[in-house]
Amino acid sequence: MTSTPDPNPVPPPVKTQARNPLHGKTLEAIVTELAAHYGWDELGLRIPVRCFTHDPSVGSSLRFLRKTPWAREKVESLYLFMLREQRRQGG
Fold first, then answer.
1. Is the pTM of this model over 0.90?
2. What CATH number did the domain enclosing 31 receive?
3. 1 found inside a domain
4. Cα–Cα distance for residue pair 45/48, rounded to 1 Å
5. Host domain of residue 54
6. Can you give the pLDDT at residue 4?
7. Which residue of 24, 45, 66, 91 is 20 to 30 Å from 9, comparing CA positions?
8. Which residue, among 55, 56, 53, 65, has the nearest Cα to 27 in the 3D structure?
């Protein structure tokens, strides 16, 4: 006896990340927002990596961060801190 596949399979439930502020944010958007908020100089002081301290740009930062997981984690952590800081200040 062979079974036929269900013509209308039920998809698995989608895990929502409604409370995750990083969900749906690109690394480019995160770096751009951090640079706009802190400026490259302050960003380089908070996360001392060459892509923020020597001739910084979004492009060079993205190339480095995509290859360097520990630095990307620091950037994402600073972004979350910035969001909390903005919420506390009401803006």
1. no
2. 1.10.720.30
3. no
4. 5
5. 27-89
6. 66
7. 24
8. 65
